[in-house]
Design goal:
The protein is α/β, with parallel strands linked by helices. It folds into two domains: about 190 residues, Rossmann fold (3-Layer(aba) Sandwich); about 80 residues, UDP-galactose 4-epimerase, domain 1. The strands form three sheets. It has a seven-stranded parallel beta sheet with strand order 3-2-1-4-5-6-10, with helices on both faces. A three-stranded mixed beta sheet has the order 7-9-11. Helix 5 links the parallel strand 5 and strand 6. Helix 1 packs across helix 7 and helix 3 runs parallel beside helix 4. Pfam families: Epimerase. This is NAD-dependent epimerase/dehydratase family protein.
């Protein structure tokens, strides 16, 4: 299969490109910079110069592909405005790619976060949230899944709030960055809120399986760790960075405070059973031991 990948040089995208190539697929991947293009070329993929804002480029690349995996996102969480801009940009890009694939029967795999289910771990059957600071991503993914009725094998892989590799990645890594700046590894309330996680290499396997096998209009959970507490995560970060660990005010986490405060464990039991996915790489708490002081 000839696969077009957005975000192919990132923490998740790089393993996805390698995973696809190692299973016989050809890969073309979006590259915003010379450095990204060089990394993709070295990996064996064909760079496609452009960004998520280059809708004609996205349409052209999608038209030439047998399938698409969308991973690119601005990941600028400095303010509510930058988050909203990134969500709007991604939504327009997904709509352009989806329109190009209508009636083709080709797969379009996109990503979102795992949902929240009060008092229990969320499952693949739970709806993705469409409100709150990141609700716009839920609306975009829902629109893509609806393309199943228009001849697109659209699939969503729900990623947990931390996708990690070698001590970096996801919201846990943001916690570490904030801890470096504040001189304290902080948590909200009593720190009992649970965060699901997955290693980037395990997520890459699931994204390939979804591309190859998942039915149209379905959602799957890339969850290896059902839910580590914020306190446990902050404790490892504090030890690795040699800073105190304590409760901090919500303002410490800026626009993400609402997300960080939510208890959001998640299950991947259906995904494992139906797609034959089994995570094999280190857990989040084990991987955070690679965090550099």
């Amino acid at each position: 299969m000839h696969v077009f990948v957005t975000g192919g040089s990132g923490l998740i995208g790089s393993p996805v490109v390698t995973e696809l190539l190692s299973h016989g697929h050809a890969v073309a991947a979006l590259a915003r910079s010379d450095a990204s293009a060089a990394a993709l070329d070295a990996a064996g993929a064909t760079p496609v110069r452009g960004s998520l804002a280059d809708l004609p480029t996205l349409r052209s690349a999608a038209a030439q592909a047998d399938g698409v995996i969308h991973l690119a996102f601005s990941n600028d969480f400095t303010s509510a405005e930058t988050v909203a801009h990134g969500i709007a940009e991604e939504g327009a890009a997904l709509a352009a790619i989806g329109d190009e694939l209508v009636g083709s029967g080709r797969p379009l795999v996109t990503v979102s976060g795992t949902p929240q289910a009060l008092g229990r771990a969320s499952t693949e059957a739970d709806p993705i949230p469409t409100d709150g600071i990141v609700g716009g991503r839920g609306l975009s993914v829902t629109a893509i899944l609806d393309l199943a009725s228009r001849g697109v094998r659209s699939v969503a892989v729900r990623l947990p709030r931390t996708v990690h590799k070698d001590g970096a990645g996801g919201f846990a890594f943001l916690l570490a960055q904030i801890a470096r700046g504040a001189g304290v590894s902080g948590y909200l309330g009593d720190g009992s809120q649970r965060w699901p996680a997955v290693h980037a290499l395990d997520a890459a396997v699931l994204l390939r399986l979804a591309l190859e096998n998942a039915p149209a209009g379905t959602a799957w959970h890339a969850v290896a760790d059902e839910g580590d507490t914020m306190l446990d995560i902050a404790t490892v970060i504090g030890r690795r960075l040699d800073v105190p660990v304590r409760e901090v005010p919500s303002e410490t986490f800026g626009p993400l405070a609402e997300v960080f405060a939510a208890d959001q464990p998640s299950s991947s039991a259906v995904t494992r059973r139906e797609l034959g996915w089994e995570p094999t790489h280190p857990s989040l708490l084990a991987d955070l031991e690679n965090l550099r002081p």
